[in-house]
Design goal:
The protein is mainly alpha-helical. The chain has two domains: about 140 residues, Tetratricopeptide repeat domain (Serine Threonine Protein Phosphatase 5, Tetratricopeptide repeat), CATH 1.25.40.10; about 80 residues, no CATH class. Helices cover about 65% and strands about 0% of the residues. It is built from twelve helices and no strands.
């Protein structure tokens, strides 16, 4: 992605949050700027050209500043999103957010329709389409549709045109749950070769610390199986981390 397109994507996402702070419910800046899930980096220096993974700033989640109560968190968010969509009915970020929420609520048909609308709204904006598809995959994964998640993640990867850093370890989760253990281990090994931190015990824990518990459980199973199947790769990863 060119620096200009990267800047435009970040501005669009940031403005979405800022605009809806006024439109919905204003929250303290500390809450609005909480750490973003999915934020990552390309391969660090020293990784071979053949193993390098690419950055992809489309694969990040910037939460909209919506205040919720513990009892009615989902409903509060849904109502706030509905108010936003009354004013901006074709806003891809709002549609993406509602689609994810609807999948969480078990409203699969409505969720799929929202993601379809979000992709239509993104039109030829490749970076935004990738962002929507990345989110779409996680929504399907959380709903238990692992094949569906892989399908849209692969589409996002194809639109990227390179080797986005998030794809190997993310796709490994769905492959593992589908029982394709060899494929999952191979994908995780690809992630470690490009980002050795994934192969180090402490690094793995740091990378997954903000994940939901059920995702951590799946990732940990893959990590342990990978260490057993690829001990030399594990040793190289730990040596690379120790040398920094």
């Amino acid at each position: 992605m060119t620096p200009r397109r990267l800047s435009l994507l970040r501005i669009r996402l940031a403005l979405s949050a800022a605009a809806f702070a006024a439109l919905l419910v204003v929250v303290p800046p500390a809450l609005a700027s909480a750490p973003e899930a999915g934020l990552g980096e390309a391969s660090p220096p020293g990784v071979s050209t053949a193993d390098r993974l690419d950055d992809d700033r489309s694969a990040r989640y910037i939460p909209l500043p919506i205040r919720t109560t513990k009892r009615g968190a989902q409903l509060d968010r849904l109502r706030a999103l509905e108010r936003g969509l009354e004013r901006f009915p074709d806003h891809p970020v709002l549609l993406r957010e509602r689609g994810f929420l609807r999948h969480q609520r078990g409203e699969a048909d409505l969720a799929e329709a929202d993601y379809a609308l979000a992709l239509t709204a993104a039109a030829s904006d490749t970076a935004m389409r990738r962002h929507v598809l990345w989110s779409f995959g996680w929504a399907r994964f959380e709903a238990g549709d692992d094949e569906g998640a892989l399908a849209v993640w692969r589409e996002a990867k194809a639109l990227h045109g390179g080797r986005p850093y998030w794809f190997p370890y993310t796709a490994a989760l769905a492959e593992w749950r589908l029982g394709r253990r060899d494929e999952a281990i191979a994908l995780f090994d690809e992630a470690v070769r490009g980002m050795p931190v994934w192969g180090d015990r402490r690094g793995f824990a740091q990378r997954t610390i903000r994940w939901p518990r059920h995702q951590i459980n799946v990732a940990t199973e893959i990590f342990m199986a990978w260490r057993q199947a690829r001990p030399e790769s594990a040793a190289r990863a730990e040596a690379a981390i120790a040398a920094r």
